[in-house]
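Continuing the series of single-chain predictions for the mutant panel. This is the parent chain; the variants come on the following pages.
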Amino acid sequence: MTVFEAAAVPGEPPPADSVAPRDSRPDAPTSVARLNGTIRDFIARWNTVWVEGEITSWNLRAGNVFARLKDVRSDAHISIRIWSSVRPRIPSDLAVGDHVVAAVKADYFVKGGDFSFIVSAMKHVGLGDQLERLEKLRAQLRQEGLFDDRRKRALPFLPHCIGLITGEKSDAEKDVHRNAELRWPQVHFRTEHVAVQGDRCVPEVLAALQKLDADPEVDVIIIARGGGDPQTLLGFSDERLIRAVAAASTPVVSAIGHENDHPLLDDVADLRASTPTDAAKRVVPDVGEQRAIVAQLRARATTRLTQRISHDIAQLEQLRSRPVLRSPDPIIETRAQEVWLLTSRGRDTVHRGVDAAHRATAELRASLRALSPAATLARGYAIVHRDGGRILTDAADAPAGVDLTVTLDRGSLRARSDGEIEEGG
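Parent structure:
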């Protein structure tokens, strides 16, 4: 049966001047009141159902609660109403971000055309089930290596710009700013305000993280919240956020401020701070402590330098007090005598060597002169050449008419052979 066919279901009497929705035509339309009444009567036949979801809004008006539930695995929402008569039967600590199951029955408000669900019972989802799912995800991410210390980045010693992701006007924001500025007054923040619980938490934190991570001036990012019960912190265990933090290029500090049952963000972050105050102290160095360290190092350097100079002065005085430096003339005179003796000995050795070389040269010259043809020529002998310098040793080699060259001790002369051979020649 369709909604329009349900018009015949008994209910408030329809207006006399209106046709049933199923019988409507362009020339005979139904009325808004009759259409809404038909829808209400159809929806009234639905049974009560139990539904699981997360509370994303919770508004109290005149004792009644107007709220919204979000599916825990998607972005689907429903509107719910809790009448004042039902409120005593549900937990008094219900709040935005809580994971609950509720008994609801569909309701359609005829006058305003609003569709919602009326709650008859509501309770928290067992925390044990949530923690079990959380631990399974923790084990999976650990197996993937997202929690390994080797992939975690070191924080800068003195960040020039700190990215802060936190709730607007929250105590966490005040604690981080106050403690950081007390430690280093020149510290600079770029703050992104986000919802820190409820259905807007994860998308807004992801967007803020992406923005700050892309900013080259941001040296470190702090995600801060002032603690809370495990259910309100579920957004900081969302797998999308955990993977985004692991993929970020900027070091991330988790400062959720929850010691027990800590969210997965604490495991994947490069540094886990127990509170926002602790995050400020661990990210920003204390200017007073650093000045004290610098003063201490200066004092140590001055002491070491003074000791070194004093030691060197003492060594210099010790060297200057030695006799050789107090009166260097005797040693110079002694060394001068030794140099003179060595010079004289060297000069004598050189002279003896030169004289011996002269004698050997004279002997060689005499031997050479004795063997030289020049000595023979000097005694009146001559050398006869023909045909370009060939020396004649046989008269038969100079027939008549042959030009000859006769070399004497001094010079040479031209001659012509007559071919006659002397007896006994």
